[in-house]
């Protein structure tokens, strides 16, 4: 059975034999909901590569302490994956944030695409962004990540172009693309950007803008995925073809099943961008 994982603010000074204090909502959930007990082992990470295993030494209403039994620093996985996710309808944005975190994406970028049905403005934007962040945080714990992904602020098409121009490889999922994912030469380091469109797909103007910035339009196959899962399929396929796909720092419970579906030795998966950069099914 896997040990529970808890996020703390900073573990840079943690060493074997030292005591780490966990407070706030994280501790409350562990003690009041999970019924954490003295003597239990836990895994603590600060989301910045520092990770320790400890034994619970004390508990309170909103606090617990653990004595460190082992400590390590986990290298940041390479290459780093950034997924530009067009705003989907309803709560599908949170689903996208969840599965992208579980597969190992480092940065999730909400994008206000021209064909996005959802609109983030004012208080709604603040709440929606907070939900994406909270979802990514919980997914990082579930998938036992040592590096917590970041959720960027709502991004415009012009800002996405800037991300593409700075990337080592940038891809736009599109149903009419003639380039296959398998034909690309992938970098072993740096940043890979994957752009996932909304339910109505990436518009011709947006595609032209992204290609001018250096992106390559690609397709995964013949079927159509929803915008909330297209990024997962694309990154899974890419990870299977890079050294990062076998790094233990990126793989945890919940990863192996997805990655086994996209074997680098098998045929290219017949899973294309969905509503993402193609015309997706209406939900």
TrEMBL record:
It is an enzyme of class 2 (transferase). Residues 22-64 form the Ribosomal RNA small subunit methyltransferase E PUA-like domain. Keywords: Cytoplasm, Methyltransferase, rRNA processing, S-adenosyl-L-methionine, Transferase. Residues 79-238 form the Ribosomal RNA small subunit methyltransferase E methyltransferase domain. It holds the Pfam family PUA_4. It is found in: Cytoplasm. Its EC number is 2.1.1.193. Its main location: cytoplasm. Residues 260-276 have a biased composition (Low complexity). InterPro entries: Alpha/beta_knot_MTases, PUA-like_sf, RsmE, RsmE_MTase_dom, RsmE_PUA-like, tRNA_m1G_MTases_N. One of its GO terms (cellular component) is cytoplasm. GO terms for molecular function: rRNA (uridine-N3-)-methyltransferase activity. The keyword S-adenosyl-L-methionine applies. It catalyses: uridine(1498) in 16S rRNA + S-adenosyl-L-methionine = N(3)-methyluridine(1498) in 16S rRNA + S-adenosyl-L-homocysteine + H(+). The keyword Methyltransferase applies. One of its GO terms (biological process) is rRNA base methylation. Residues 243-283 are annotated as: Disordered. NCBIfam families: PRK11713.2-3 (NF008693), RsmE family RNA methyltransferase (TIGR00046). Belongs to the RNA methyltransferase RsmE family. This is Ribosomal RNA small subunit methyltransferase E. It comes from Nocardioides piscis.
